[in-house]
Amino acid sequence: MIDIKNESIANSILRRDEETFRELFQTYAKLLWAVAGGILSEKGGAEQDIEECVSDAFIELWNHPEKYDPARGSVKSYLCRITKNKAIDIYRRKNRENVITIDEYIEAPASDIFDIPDYSRLYEAIEGLQEPTREIVVRRYFHDEKPARIAKRLGLQIKEVENRLYRGKKALMESLSDYREELVNEYES
Hints:
The chain has 9 helices and no strands.
């Protein structure tokens, strides 16, 4: 059953009635902002990314008014769906751009697991790890990402991430054990 109101809006959209678009924008812009912000906030979405999603939703509706089918739902849900898809696209793009290299993050403060005064030793030890263990260790201990999130981002099983964290941490501790011993000896003398 088609809602008469949806049918009327659909006809106005098909005619590209500027007043209808202005009203739609005034009515739904804040909602669409919240939809995009909810998706992009995890990625540190900038205001311009969120604004881009909202404006792209209205541009999409303007450029392709025939795609809105009032039989499938309200224009509100249609605009929300477009905005959500645009935000997910930006999120994925930012995720791909966010490739972590050890050089970029070695300056970041280490967690207390690797709390040593000479970061060059820590850097060398981390460089000795094989991929993807190296990236997993950096994400977990330098970015404080949870294993489930790391697994999702790298397309791995959580158990594999946890195992690699355990083995990577153990390898780092072994690699740094001589250095830690030197520090203890210096401190005691």
